[in-house]
Amino acid sequence: MQQASPTGQTHPPSAGGGELVLGRYRRVRRIGAGGMGVVWLAHDEKLDRPVAVKRIATGDEAVARRAAREAKAAARLAHPAIVSLYETGRDEEAVYLVSELVVGSTLAALLEEGALSDRDVLQIGAALCDALAHAHGRGVIHRDVKPQNIIVPDTQQSGGGVAKLTDFGIAMLLDEDVLTRTGDVVGTIAYMAPEQAEGHEVTAQSDLYALALVVYEALSGVNPVRGRTPAATARNVGERLPRLERLRRDLPRELCAAIDQAVDPDPGRRGKLTDLRAGLRGHAGDVGDEPGTVEGSTLEPVTRITRRATRRATRLVAAPDAQAARGWAAEDTHAGRVQDGWGDAAPDGPWAWRPVPPSGRAVAAVGAGGLTAVALATLGPPPPFATPAAAVAVAAVVAVVPRLGALLTVLGLALWLLLAPEGVAPGVGLGHGVVVNRAGARAGDSGLALLVLAAGLPAVIALWRARPGWMSAPALAPLLGVLSLALAWPAIAGQARRVTHRLVLGALGCWWLLLVQALTGTTLLLGPVPGVRDPLRWTGSAQEAFLHVLAPLLTSGAVGIAAVWALAAAVLPFLIRGRHGALDIALATAWAAGLAAATQAVARALPGDGGPPDVRGAVLGAVLAGGLAVGARAARGPARERPGTAWRPPGRG
C-alpha cells in the first residue's frame, strides 16, 4: 500500500492508531489543507484500502452548504478521468468526504519540473475532454479547471488513467438553484472564461475555455492571461490570446488552430469539447514524446496595447462589485505569479525557433553591439569602416534575429581578425595592460581570432536555448574584475531561470575573465596563470595561442574556479527564496562566504613559483555578491511554491 507525499513521491503509510472517522476510516496523517478543509490519509478498515478523507468544519453555514454541493456533484460522476467519491457523512462538527487516494503529481508540478512531453500533454488534454463531457452530460459544470486541479497518476502503481480531474468544490449543478447569484464570481481568474469572470451565465463552454487554456500553457510554457499582478491579470481576461502557432511553430497547424478556437473570448465561436478532443487526439502521434521544460516569458507586451488596456480597465471598473474584484485578486495571488528569468527554453531541441520578447531583443542587441564596438576598437588594426556604424549594424541584426545574429557576430569578428591587413594596432589600454600593442603586425591575427571563438562560440551554443541577452552577459565578469568585484558574477549568473543556464553562465563568466586577463596581462582575478605567455608571443598564431593560453588555462587548474562559480550560481535560487528577509540575509552571507573561500582554495592550489596567488577583491566581491542575491530576489518577489500535495480528493482543500 502506498500513499502520495506532498512532493509527489510515494512512501508506505505510517502505522498508528489515529482517530476513527465515520466508524471505519482510521486517520493516518494529515497531507493537505485548503480553504474548505483538511485532507487526511486514512485507512478503510472495512475494505482494507487507503483512502483520502477530507474534513470540512460546519461552523459556517455557507461552507456546510458548499460541502454538501461538492459531495452531490462528485457523487453524480463515475469516470476514469475523475477522482471517485466513495462516501460522505457528517457529525456535529464537520462534513467528511471520502475519496480514492491517487498516487501521482499535479499537472502544475509536472509542468514546472519539465516531466511531460508534448504527446503527454495532448493525451492528458484528450482524457480531460472526456471527463468534462461526462460531467456536463450529468449536469455538472466544474468552473475551476486549472493545472492544480488535474492529477497525473503513477499508472504503474495506482492503475489509474492518463489524468484525473478533481476539486468540484465550486461546481454548478444545472438542475438545481445555483449557489451563487448572477454577478458573483468564483474560480481562479487566470484560467477563467471571460463570461465567468464578468459574472454572466456559466456553461459547458466555460469549462472548455479553461481546459484549452491549460493545454495552451502546457505547450507554450506561458499562460498569457496571467500578468505580473492580480490587476494585470484581470485586465487580460477577455483579450484574444496570441496564436499558439506563433509560440510553437514546430506544432501541427491544425492542432494549434483547434486550441486557438477553444480559447476564443466569444463562447459562440469556441466550438465543442468534441472538436478540441479530436484536435488533441488526432495529432498525438505528430508531436514529440521527449520530456522537457518549455519556459515562457511574460507576454504582457502583447496585451499592453493602449486600446485594449483602456477597454479592459473600463470593464473592470464596471465589475459586479468591489468584493468580487477582491476575490479575483485573492484567487489569482493564490494561484501564483509568473516569474521572470533570462533562461527560457526552446520548444524542441537546441536549434528550434522560439519567439523572443521585445525586452529580450533589446538586451541582446545592446550587448552584441557594445561588445562589437569594444572588439573593433581594441583588437587588431583599425577596421576599414566606422566602428560606431558597425556596432549599430550588429545591434540591428541581433534585434531582428537574436540568436543567429549573435552567432554571425562571433564568426564575423573572427573572420575580420583572420583577414586583417598588415598594420599597426592602436594599443588600447585596459587596466594596467594593453589589449594589443605590436608594431609591424603581419596579416592575419589568427591567435586573437582563436580567442574570440573560444569565448564567443561556447556562449552562443551553450546558451542557444536561453534568452539571447545572456549570450553577451559573461562580459560583465571581466568588467567586474577591473573594479576588483569579480566574485559578484555568480550572483548575476544565478538569476537565470534554468539550472543548466546558471551552471553555464557561472562557468562562462570565469572563462571570459581568464581569457581577458591573458589577453591584457592585467590581474582581474588571479595573478599570472602558470604557462600563459605574454600576448606578443601568440596573438598572430592560432597554434601559439592554443599552446600558450588555452592549454595552460585548461590544464593548470584555473578552470576549477569556473566549476566553483557554476555551482554557486546553480544553487543560489534554492537558497534565497524571498519569504523571510532575515533568513535570506543569513543564507546569502553564508553562500557568499563559501564562494569566496572555495575560490581562494582553488587559487592557492594552482602551481607556480611565486607562491599561492590571492583572489583580487575577494572580500568586496563576496559582499556585493550577497547583496545582489538578496536584492534581486526582493525585486522579483518570493519564489513560487510548488503545489503542496501530489494528490487531491474531489474538493477545494
From TrEMBL:
PROSITE patterns the record matches: PROTEIN_KINASE_ATP, PROTEIN_KINASE_DOM, PROTEIN_KINASE_ST
A Pfam family per the record: Pkinase
Annotated TM spans: 447-464, 470-491, 503-526, 546-575, 582-603, 615-635
Amino-acid positions noted as binding ATP in the UniProt annotation, renumbered to this chain: K54
EC top class named in words: transferase
Keyword field contains Kinase: yes
GO MF, any single term: protein serine/threonine kinase activity
EC numbers for this chain: 2.7.11.1
Keywords carried by this UniProt record: ATP-binding, Kinase, Membrane, Nucleotide-binding, Serine/threonine-protein kinase, Transferase, Transmembrane, Transmembrane helix
Gene3D superfamilies reported for this sequence: Phosphorylase Kinase, domain 1, Transferase(Phosphotransferase) domain 1
Location of the Protein kinase domain: 25-286
Name used for this protein in its record: non-specific serine/threonine protein kinase
